[in-house]
Structures are given as structure tokens and as C-alpha cells.
Design goal:
Blueprint (H helix, E strand, L loop, with lengths): L2 E5 L2 E4 L4 E8 L7 E7 L6 E6 L6 E3 L7 E6 L4 E6 L8 E8 L2 H6 L3 E2 L3 E6 L1
Parallel strand pairs: 2-11
Antiparallel strand pairs: 1-3, 3-8, 4-5, 4-9, 5-6, 7-8, 9-10, 9-11
């Protein structure tokens, strides 16, 4: 399995932007589909976005389409979540995840990072 470490979270005002990063260990990173989930206080973890191993296919939750962009750089073993037009309801712990394919990631993934807090003030 691949090990994942998130970074880039923080406190930001509504309307602002953040870029989350997830660094992966392991020489097989480029063979994994990867994605992002989030968990708000008192709520269940929810899927946010996913990208295929080669970056050619993406999948987004309806609630973030048009504001969030997932990307990856296989040469750097890193993938990203660009978040624009942040809203207070985006406040959550964001987790990166990896799986064998896009469907596996969307369904709940097999490897997880430890999470990074994103807080959006109104």
C-alpha cells in the first residue's frame, strides 16, 4: 500500500482559496487512483474528488463541482486539491486517499492520510 501525508490546510476567509497537497511514498504511486474526502464536525466522511492513475479521468461530488480541482504530478509522487471560492460549509478535516482504481477510491479507498484541517470563516 501507499503511505499518504496531507499538507496545506489552514484558516481562510470565505471567498478565499487553498491548495491542499498529498505526498505519497512508494514507487507504485503512479499506478494508483487517488482522491480527497472530507469530514465536517458531527457529520460522516464524504467523497470530494478523485483522479485516475494517469490523470485523464476525474470525478467530483456535486457540491464542489466548479470550485474544486484535483490534479496529480506522478513525477513528484504528489497530488493536489485546489479549492476556490471557499464557503463556511467547506470547513472540515480533509483526507487524501488512494485505491486501485477510480471506482475503488470513490467507494471508500484503501489507503488514507491523517487529515488536514480546513477552516473557513464567514
Amino acid at each position: 500500500q501507499v503511505q499518504l501525508v496531507e499538507s496545506g490546510g489552514g484558516l481562510v476567509q470565505a471567498g478565499g482559496s487553498l491548495r491542499l497537497s498529498c505526498a505519497a511514498s512508494g514507487r507504485t504511486f503512479s499506478t494508483y487512483a487517488v482522491g480527497w474526502f472530507r469530514q465536517a464536525p458531527g457529520k460522516e466522511r464524504e467523497f470530494v474528488a478523485a483522479i485516475s492513475w494517469g490523470g485523464g479521468r476525474t470525478n467530483y461530488a456535486d457540491s464542489v463541482k466548479g470550485r474544486f480541482t484535483i490534479s496529480r504530478d506522478n513525477a513528484k509522487n504528489t497530488f493536489y486539491l485546489q479549492i476556490n471560492s471557499l464557503k463556511p460549509e467547506d470547513t472540515a478535516v480533509y483526507y487524501c486517499a488512494a485505491g486501485a482504481n477510480l471506482a475503488t477510491v470513490v467507494a471508500g479507498a484503501s489507503s488514507w492520510g491523517q487529515g488536514t484541517q480546513v477552516t473557513v470563516s464567514s
